Amino acid sequence: MECITWFAPILPGKLDEWKALDAEMNGPRREEHARSRKRMGVTREVASLVQTPEGDFVSLFHEAEDLAKAFQTLATSEDPYDVWFREHLVNVHGLTAEMLQGPIPATLFFDYRDAG
Predict the structure, then answer these.
(1) Does any domain span residue 108?
(2) Of residues 73, 10, 84, 13, the one with CA closest to residue 47
(3) What is the pLDDT of residues 60-76, one digit of tens each?
(4) In which domain, by residue range, is 61 found?
(5) Dist. CA 78–CA 2, nearest whole Å
(6) How many angstroms separate the CA atoms of 31 and 3, rounded?
(7) CATH number, domain containing residue 67
(8) Residue 108 contacts by C-beta under 8 Å, 6 or more apart in sequence?
């Protein structure tokens, strides 16, 4: 299983839109989101809001058997939910489908796990 933590900027003036997106994913579109992540092979996804003097960011944690394949699936899917989600990635974070098809957006340096 692969995992990665990475940051995505929340573009200036887009915090309320990000919060609305989060509410949609956790509310009326929760089942669609779960199906999307299952198609991607994502077994865990965590998003945390990080507010700094430099601006707002989302700290993301993703876990999947193959992260590159997971992001590729999201980038190319024609499923209506995935298309809707990608539109929000562009509007809120400035992330394009092309960016999702490139290298994983972070490099894992340390991963402690309790062996017990």
Answers:
(1) no
(2) 10
(3) 999 999 999 999 999 99
(4) 2-100
(5) 25
(6) 23
(7) 3.30.70
(8) 3, 4, 5
